[in-house]
Design brief:
Blueprint (H helix, E strand, L loop, with lengths): L1 H13 L5 E7 L3 E7 L34 H17 L6 E5 L10 H15 L4 E6 L7 H8 L3 E5 L5 H8 L8 H9 L6 E11 L2 E4 L3 H14 L3 E6 L10 E2 L2 H12 L4 E5 L1
Parallel strand pairs: 2-3, 3-4, 4-5, 5-6, 6-8, 8-10
Antiparallel strand pairs: 1-2, 6-7, 6-9
Length: 271
């Protein structure tokens, strides 16, 4: 009960209350204009990552049980904001889909992406469109097709070892595993960016550390299979719902990044 009350307090402070936010200065994306197409009152996701800034989902909601803004409403707000920023000569490096959960769960995700591309081309033609996804929906052809139409499909892989991935990401599906995910990520033909947090900790008696030599070797093997155009490594930089998490040293990020670069893969780090 105490753990849950702390989580509720954490979520109340962290959930985004608007569709559009920013631009903010992002460690990875520069001047980023955020789009939250998830609900404003609850996290909607297929993961409950131990480091998630939105806290845990309890109970675990389904898209059909929650009222979501429709495509027209989202695009109207986005166009108003893009026009306003353009008129005030404010730079935008990335239009970034993030927010209170997994954006690809929205039933109109593909249509929203198409309309965002149209507005980007009109107002900020040199700006990237970025989607931050936990990779759980890339079994769906329509989601994959939409992700392939944007500049930066940033997909999560926190460990190439299933037991570690499940301990860190806490996927809702009992069948979700790293082996299948790696194959699905490989189907993008290299047109994908992999995002990975390096982290240590313990939750509900389960310890995890994705920086061990065994973990890194498995991860490098996965990168050889996926052949992403970029890897984004980052460390914990904000308060999380699990108090035992440890931020890994900058030297660890740099060491792992160096080993990935030897595979001729571009790497960025956010320490």
């Amino acid at each position: 009960m105490e753990e849950q009350s702390l989580n509720d307090e954490f979520k109340q402070k962290r959930l985004l209350k608007h569709i559009i936010y920013g631009p903010i200065n992002s460690r990875r994306f520069g001047r980023s204009l955020g789009i939250n197409i998830m609900p404003e009152v609850e996290k909607l996701c297929t993961f409950d990552c131990v480091y998630c800034e939105c806290g845990f989902s309890n109970p675990k909601p389904r898209p059909e049980d929650i009222a979501l803004h429709d495509c027209q409403s989202i695009i109207s707000v986005l166009e108003y904001r893009l026009k306003e920023l353009k008129e005030n000569d404010i730079a935008v490096d990335s239009i970034t889909f993030s927010g209170n959960g997994e954006p690809t769960l929205h039933p109109e995700f593909g249509k929203i992406i198409d309309e965002t591309i149209r507005l980007r081309d009109e107002y900020y033609p040199d700006t990237n469109i970025t989607v931050l996804s936990n990779s759980t929906t890339i079994t769906k052809p329509d989601v994959v097709a939409a992700l392939k139409r944007i500049d930066m499909p940033v997909l999560k892989l926190d460990s190439a070892i299933t037991s570690t991935m499940r301990a860190i990401d806490l996927p809702h599906s009992p069948k979700f595993n790293s082996n299948d995910l790696i194959k699905q990520l490989g189907s993008f033909g290299g047109n994908v960016i992999i995002q990975t947090i390096l982290i240590k900790g313990k939750y509900k008696g389960v310890e995890f550390d994705n920086t061990t030599e065994k973990e890194i070797e498995a991860y490098l093997n996965a990168m050889e299979k996926i052949k992403p155009k970029m890897v984004m490594l980052y460390a914990l930089d904000r308060k999380a719902p699990v108090a035992s998490l440890e931020k890994v040293p900058a030297e660890t990020l740099r060491s792992v990044a160096s080993r990935i670069r030897k595979l001729n893969i571009e790497v960025t780090t956010a320490e």
